[in-house]
Amino acid sequence: MLQTTDFSLPGVNDHPKLACSFVRWRPLQAENGSAASNLGSTRSSAPSLRLSLVFFHCNGTHKETWLPTVEHLFDALHALPGAQFTVIEAWAIDSPQHGHAARLNDRVLLELPDGLDMDQWNAPVNTLFKSGLIAGDRVVGIGHSAGSVSLITMTLGYALDRLPFSSMIVIEPPMMPPKMLKYAQEKRLPMLRAIELAKTRQDVWSSREEAREWFGRQFPWRRWDKRVFDLFIEHALHDLPTATYPSQREGVTLACTRAQDSAAYTKFKIGFTALDRLTKLCASLPVHCIFGETIDMV
């Protein structure tokens, strides 16, 4: 069982208007049998290294999408006696235009129809690190797809010998050099077709149940794990009205609007920046890269 705590914080530095939304999961029982909430107690009987995990979601989803992964991870760690480390908590971050954060930033996002730039996208994780809420001795960053780009580029404000993460895991990173992007554009690869679909797909449904039925028939949602799909229906949709649809009083719409979703797919230069930064990070800390078995997007 996990203890779930939600946090909403104001933005910091150059992005005070962008509110931040986080969720923290901690095991109710730590791996050594002691209460997880007793984080400040003596560590004589516990593993010497305490890790915090910070998860970054992909475009079009939300922070809670990581919950099944986190549950599986803590179950696996509980069954791993004698480990030299323990994961004491896992954090997940909503990008400013996704999930609950999108509701908090509803009206602000209307002022940014061309999407967020790199610094705006990374504002929440910088807020989290400045908050003092992370309890681990070391922090492992884990990013999926666009989340891996955010994970990598947020380190640009840090010297390579003072990085906020002790290691990184990047999953299906959508990064490529300019020549490869040109090839992808010429060949009309699926990743490029996704941009066009994001601009025009249905984004209003009469009810959450109607939305569930619609997404259940569409790629890629119809292929998702049921737990992840259910969380998407719960957290990636907002009840109407919203700032985008102020006159509609019933039904649901996308938390990440079509404008914000499609704009994110066009930020190719951020991907170039991330790839260049990754070459430097790999010389400074452990980086593990994961690609899926099915080549359907990247």
UniProtKB/TrEMBL annotation:
Residues 53-233 form the AB hydrolase-1 domain. InterPro entries: AB_hydrolase_1, AB_hydrolase_fold. It holds the Pfam family Abhydrolase_6. It comes from the Eukaryota. This is AB hydrolase-1 domain-containing protein.
